[in-house]
Amino acid sequence: MSIESIQQKIIEEFSSLSEWEQKYQYLIEKGVSLSKPSEELKQEENRVKGCQSQVWMKAQKTPQEGKEIIVIEAYSDAAIVRGLIALLLEVYNGHSAEEIINAKLDFLVEIGLVQHLSPNRKNGLSAMLKQIHRFAQLG
Predict the structure, then answer these.
(1) Is 97:40 a contact under the CB 8 Å cutoff?
(2) Is 104 among the catalytic positions?
(3) How does 31-51 read in b/e, with b if 16+ C-beta sit within 10 Å?
(4) Average pLDDT estimate for 122-136
(5) Rounded CA gap, 89 and 76, in Å?
(6) Which residue in 3, 6, 51, 132 is the catalytic one?
(7) Out of 14, 81, 90, 100, which could bridge 111 as a Cys pair, Cβ 3.0 to 4.6 Å?
(8) How far is Cα of residue 37 from the mean position of the Cα atoms in its chain?
(9) Could you report the per-residue pLDDT of 2-60, keeping only the tens digit for each?
(10) Which stretches within the chain are classed as H helix?
(11) pLDDT at 139
(12) How far is it, in rounded angstroms, from Cα 51 to Cα 12?
């Protein structure tokens, strides 16, 4: 599934929820799907700088069907931030570096998420996005 298709699916999911309380609850539920972090992930070198919550993120490139894809592992100690991570992983995980670098992130504005996050969470979201792009550019 393309990044654009995944983003469209997320837009539709969020559009079906009318109240922001429901949308935050949905985001928290998405975060529950993340696997518990390994001790390897929770190393200081994997900490995302710029996040008020503790966020760990690492990536590796893996060959799949004749191309190299990026597989990201991430986790946070905060429920809403885990939901943000789950959204980002849903969009980016399993795609090539080129697809990640060229992806537009209009869906974050379209679902209203950017407008409804606190300034600290916006900074954290921005830091996580920068880290994902850094992973893509390094390879």
Answers:
(1) no
(2) no
(3) beebeebeeebeeeebebeeb
(4) 93
(5) 13
(6) 51
(7) 14
(8) 15
(9) 999 999 999 999 999 989 999 999 999 999 989 889 999 999 999 999 888 899 999 99
(10) 3-15, 20-32, 79-92, 97-102, 106-110, 113-116, 119-137
(11) 56
(12) 28
Q: How far is CA 112 from CA 11, 104, 117, 125, 129, in A?
A: 9, 16, 9, 14, 17
Residue 112 sits in which domain range? 3-137
Strand pairing category for 67-76 and 55-64: antiparallel
Instruction: Read off the tokens for 82.
Output: 């885990």
Specify the pTM.
Answer: 0.91
Distance (Å, rounded) from C-alpha 139 to C-alpha 97? 7
User: Rounded to 5 degrees, what are φ and ψ at 61?
Assistant: -95, 140
Domain tally, the chain:
1
Tokens of 89: 């992983």
Show Cβ contacts of residue 136 under 8 Å, excluding neighbours closer than 6 positions.
70, 97, 98, 100, 101
> In this predicted model, what pLDDT tens digit does every residue of 45-90 receive, in sequence order?
999 998 888 999 999 998 888 889 999 999 999 999 999 999 999 9
Is residue 96 within 8 Å of 133, Cβ to Cβ?
no
